[in-house]
Amino acid sequence: MEENKGQRAKTGGAVSDLRRSWQTWAEDRVEYQRKNPFSNDDRLASRPLHAQKGDPAYGRPPEGSKTEQRGKDAHSHVEKEVEELCLIIRSTGQKGEDGHVSVTFGQLFETYVTISNKVVGILLRARKHGLVRFEGEMLWQGKDDDVVITLLE
């Protein structure tokens, strides 16, 4: 009989642990859905409002999330590619009378395409950060081979 009680206690403990684990998961899920802007669950009507325009958290992933980390890693990778592009321009281009190094898009494309297939995207990013200057909104291989790209650093 005491053996039966011990076995029930062990089973009761396992069920209790399972119940506690399930309850924790359910509470976490409700909290997750409360933050989910696509959730239409009426039971969560008292959920806090999501970040509004002008709020520093608007359009940003939650702090400490994997999404935030992936964004930081991607940003770092693009920065390195921009730096590498500037080094390629510096090494393949020619110094002009104004002291800035310049290269044509065709020459840069032929040199840089062996390193990365994102030449135009990286050039646009470098221009956005004020590192290079060139005419036009977009550069097309063949059509814009004679466009001069000037390194501003």
Automatic annotation (TrEMBL):
GO terms for molecular function: actin binding. Keywords: Actin-binding, Activator, Cytoplasm, Cytoskeleton, Phosphoprotein, Protein transport, Transcription, Transcription regulation, Translocation, Transport. It is found in: Cytoplasm, Cytoskeleton; Cytoplasm, Myofibril, Sarcomere. It comes from Callipepla squamata (Scaled quail). GO terms for biological process: positive regulation of Rho protein signal transduction; positive regulation of transcription by RNA polymerase II; protein transport. Acts as an activator of serum response factor (SRF)-dependent transcription possibly by inducing nuclear translocation of MKL1 or MKL2 and through a mechanism requiring Rho-actin signaling. This is Actin-binding Rho-activating protein. Residues 76-152 form the Costars domain. Residues 29-45, 63-78 have a biased composition (Basic and acidic residues). One of its GO terms (cellular component) is cytoskeleton.
